[in-house]
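Field reference: "sequence" (input) and "structure" (output). Example, Lipoprotein:
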Amino acid sequence: MILKKIFAGLFLLFFLNGCVQSAALLGPAYTLASSGNIYQAGLSYGSNQAVKEITGKSPTENIKSFVDDKKLKVEEEESQEEFFALVKSRIEKTSKIIQLANQ
């Protein structure tokens, strides 16, 4: 009997996990189940839908893109600093060579 329950649970987990229509509904459903506050759950769902309607992305996708943009900017700044340091060292090296050649 236990083996049948485990098999049924695995079947539902692996084969029917794509049936969830909207992940935005899962958070408010959990809030409603844990706190029992229907107003808070409704506000959460409504704000998620409003953000999705306005931006075209879910709140989680917005945060992810914001973090990725910050990382990209930091990486660009670091690569620019490395480039300027390399150019500066090459110029100094070349000027030393020219000074030695002029003596």
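The chain has four helices and no strands.
Residues 58-102 form one domain.
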